[in-house]
Design a protein that fits this description.
Blueprint (H helix, E strand, L loop, with lengths): L4 H42 L20 E4 L31 E10 L7 E10 L6 E8 L11 E9 L6 E5 L11 E9 L10 E10 L5
Antiparallel strand pairs: 1-2, 2-7, 3-6, 3-8, 4-5, 4-7
Organism: Agreia bicolorata
Protein name: SipW-cognate class signal peptide
Keywords: Membrane, Transmembrane, Transmembrane helix
Length: 218
């Protein structure tokens, strides 16, 4: 059976188009594969990373804390860490009291030069002896060291306070600057004999000034 020239040409054209289409398809497949390889290499690279660290170290040490007291004008500040502590010097003779007598004694406290923090001081008193219940006291804070009948100041502990008063008052102390002692708080202690004073009997009163350091975070 014979075919025409046009039919033969059409067949060759169809074969050529099929071959060209197959060639383009293989090219696309190779391109996709190549792209896949490139993506694969890129993914492998991202697995590597730069590493770096920073470190910080704190060094810690304890400061110093010490309260000291002064009982006489020329005596200077010293430590009196245990009872009975400093012997107060009263302006009026305290060993020959009669009812309604009043005696006066100065005292001062401060933080020493080595102290590295401020403080809160809590004042308490303990009375002992037959006449302890017949004595009351008052404490003033004063601008200068000294205490007598003419002394004035701010009331720290009110008059009439019993000699057995716990936590009678609190006040602040400030550390000194540049290795210097802190400013003192000057006190005037005023003791009054009551009407029930027992003749010939004795009493002692011990005042405690308990200082507690103040945290820098407060």
């Amino acid at each position: 059976m014979s075919t025409s020239t046009s039919e033969h040409a059409t067949a060759e054209q169809a074969t050529g188009q099929a071959t060209e289409h197959a060639t383009r398809r293989r090219g696309i497949v190779r391109a996709v594969l190549a792209g896949g390889l490139v993506l694969g290499v890129g993914a492998a690279v991202t697995l590597a990373a730069w590493n770096d660290s920073e470190f910080a170290t704190g060094t810690f040490g304890a400061g110093s804390f010490n309260l000291e007291g002064q009982e006489t004008a020329g005596g200077g500040f010293t430590d009196h860490e245990t009872a009975p502590g400093a012997a107060l010097t009263f302006v009026v003779e305290p060993l020959n009291l009669a009812p309604a007598d009043v005696v006066y004694a100065p005292f001062a406290v401060r933080l020493d030069a080595a102290t590295t923090t401020d403080a809160v001081v809590t004042l308490s008193s303990v009375g002992a002896g037959a006449n302890a219940a017949n004595l009351t006291y008052e404490i003033l804070t004063t601008g200068a060291f000294g205490c007598d009948a003419a002394t004035t100041g701010d009331v720290l502990v009110p008059a009439g306070t019993a000699t057995t008063a716990a936590d009678a008052a609190t006040f602040d102390l400030t550390q000194g600057a540049a290795a210097a002692a802190g400013d003192p708080v000057n006190l005037c202690l005023i003791v009054t004999a009551g009407g029930g004073l027992v003749e010939g009997a004795a009493a002692t009163v011990t005042w405690e000034f308990a200082a507690e350091s103040v945290s820098d975070n407060d």
